[in-house]
Amino acid sequence: MLIPFQELRKTCAARIRMLHTQGHDVTGLEENLAAVPDSYDALLAYGKSIIDVPMRPDFPYHEPNDLGGIRLERPAIRQDVIPGFINEMELRDKIYGGVYGRMLGCILGKPFEMNMTLADIRGYLEGTGDWPLSDFAPAYSPTQKEPLRRDCMESTRGHVTHVQADDDLNYLVLGLKVLEQFGPGFRTQDMAYLWKEHIPYGWNWGPEHTRYCLMSGLWWDHNNRLPEGKEWDDFAALFNDGEELIGAMIRGDAFGLVNPGRPAAAAEMAWRDGRLTHAKTGLYAEMWVAAALSAAFHEQDPVKAVQAGIAQIPANSRYAACMTEALDWALHDRDWLKTYDRINAKWGYLGFNGTFNESATVVNSLVNGVDSRGHVDFESIICRQVMQGWDCDSAGATAGCLAGVMAGFRNIPDIWLSPIRDTFHTTVAGERKTRISALSERMYQMSRIVRAAVPAEASEPELQAQGDSNNFTIKV
Q1: Angle made by CA atoms 248, 251, 257, in degrees to the nearest 5
Q2: What domains does the chain contain, in order, with CATH numbers?
Q3: pTM value?
């Protein structure tokens, strides 16, 4: 089915607004769009013309998309490998904690995934005496403005018997599958291939969905390969007005989980995945998640994990500025509600799927999720994350994965583990209903393979070579 002309126009107009936010000179672009006739050829030509738009000379940030440029823009002082020893038993426990934590944070927030704000969620929960949140969402509240999502009943209190299928969790599985099938040297095009082979049409949104549809039309050359180099970058940008949304951020977990203590390697894998759909802020967010998760294996202080993630992205970027500011607020306020008010005042206008506001709330939850003894409080982190609203299941999953790694599986309270019965559902082809413990074990075993294939002492050129090759060689 052909996309209506008006939809293509809306996408181009939204992309122009996004380009302006990114610092591009968009002078005259809207007027040019208005003059384009209702013709697919004409609109396609216009869409291609706004891929490479010059930057404004007064834009104060420098935000490259290529991996080499990103690395050059990172802080000079950083840790690409976190020093310290962690034995295999503890590492395995932390990987299990990350997988279970992601799933629990996701289904905790899933019923509220209705673009609800903190005020909306608070009003709902106060009606049942459940504010602050400390359990799965009640399915009904006498003070509700509208019912929670009916398709999420199985993620509400008293109805949880498993982890419900969700697009956020599909990407965790896909991240593992690309490593299992193509090895640590997987390419962006390999991930695209797995999307087409394993994700059903309609189970992705935003730029993920538009890239999915465009890939259908391009499928592919005689070797089943997508474009390479600049041609690939142009394809990823064509009619893409969502490259700075949260969609890549929710895909970085697997790459952090298989690279314990190696944030640079984790961020590099996340870059290969993220560039499938996202750029600049959207791309950096996935790299931050992967790097912060990698650091969390060694850093029991959430602040240090957050900082390790920031150190793997361009220092003079809007995203780094956002994350640094959110971290400063959380450390200064030591009150998650007060920090949320600051976040909402500055970035709340972005609403559902906004990368700045969603990422800042994750920082807020982590910093304020440490108990009086300095231990990470898993329950506090996932509940506070969900209570902050917006994309509750996506941000809940990210915060849950980070909290699960830092706390470890052994420290996730049974009140959360018992109801899900070690079972999750997914729409990823070939997976279906399976055990969370089995997926966690696969993730742990893949971490062993990755660590053997790319030793911690590997240089950045060696890491780049892994990313540029499909040759999967285990170094021993």
Answers
A1: 140
A2: 5-49 (no CATH), 69-110+165-187+235-468 (1.10.4080.10)
A3: 0.93
